[in-house]
Amino acid sequence: MFVLPIRLHANWLCVFLCDFMLDVPIVIIVFNRPDKTLQVINSLATVQPSRLYVIADGPRSSHPNDEVLCKKTRELFESIPWPCSIFLEYSDVNLGLRKRITTGLDWVFSNEESAIILEDDVIATKSFFLFCEELLELYADVSNVFAISGNCFQPNQEQYDESYYFSRYAHCWGWATWRRSWVLNDDTMSSWPHERFKRPFRQMFEHSYIEFFWYRRFNSVYKGNIKAWSYAWLYSIWRRDGVSIIPSRNLVQNIGFDASATNTFSATNSKLLQPSLNLEFPLNHPKTTSVNKTADLYVEKHIFEIKPVLFTFVDRIKRKFFN
To answer: Which residues, in sequence order, are CB contacts of 313 under 8 Å at separation 6+?
Structure first.
């Protein structure tokens, strides 16, 4: 008589007992933090995605501990405690966060029409996955909607009657998108020299000092002084007058504010530390995809901490002729 292995028995028993299984593929981006990666894997047990994509960067030659830590992190995916198809994209060398994420997502979207993306320090609530799954289907063919975020940094989140709003900003501590959007990502920002003075870009912002902030930030990314994939992605969205979906409740928690992080060494801005909550279902959908300008202005002032600056004649001349 043929007997299934014990582990497979346990996995399938888990399938029958689980009240929800996610059909949308999950992408996990990892590096050298096995402790945090394990927490992310454990958090996925409530939704048990049927397809899991893992993007891993390679160890840095200048960090002796990286090789062991990267190996321990990758070994975690050899024993996922639910049945799923696992696809691995591991780099032998260190590509850096920007290149590793960009090339990794290029690989994912060469295989999938849509996906939910988590980094190794993001814990999402169950309603985040339900939220993304529903809206990935609902807005699959709405070309100006580029991404779905799990973050909401707004104060007094109970003020919103609708389940989400539309924003210029694409927060990426837990997010989802479509192939149709990602293929438009211009990671090198090759079009920036031609786009930066065009009227549509300059008219996006409520105030000139916010425009000036993003002009300087994008210029630094284009020149390679800031190595952030998310800014190039944001630029790609704005270039096509795109918007993102922001939930009316914060659905994710970043557990990566420590010395092991690449960017978030400490949460000096307490407004970044929103607790993770759950949304009520069924969702209450907005009637249009118009941007919530009040919410965006709050993000500009309190999350990006953009301060008013005095524009001088020299500033304007420099922007027009010398940058």
So the answer is: none
3-state secondary structure of 262: coil
314 CB contacts (<8 Å, ≥6 apart)?
A: none
What is the C-alpha separation between 85 and 46, in angstroms, rounded?
A: 17
175-178 vs 145-149, strand pairing mode: antiparallel
Answering whether pTM is above 0.70, one says yes
What's the rounded Cα separation, in Å, for the pair 251 and 129?
9
Domains in the chain (CATH in brackets) are 12-321 (3.90.550.10)
E-strand stretches of 57-189? 85-90, 114-119, 122-124, 145-149, 164-167, 175-178
Band of the pLDDT at 106, cuts 50, 70, 90? very high
- Among 132, 186, 134, 166, CA closest to 244: 166
pLDDT in tens, 44-53: 999 999 999 9
Residues 242, 245, 248, 253: is their CA dihedral positive or negative? negative
CA distance 299 to 96: 28
Q: Torsion angle, CA of 273/274/278/283, rounded to 10 degrees?
A: -130
In order, the DSSP letters of 131-160 are HHHHHHHHTTT-TTEEEEES----SSGGG-
Token digits of residue 178: 């479509």
Q: What is the phi/psi pair of residue 178, to 5°?
A: -115, 160
Asked whether the beta carbons of 74 and 34 are under 8 A apart, the reply is no
Strand ranges across the sheet with 243-247: 85-90, 51-56, 26-30, 114-119, 175-178, 145-149, 243-247, 164-167
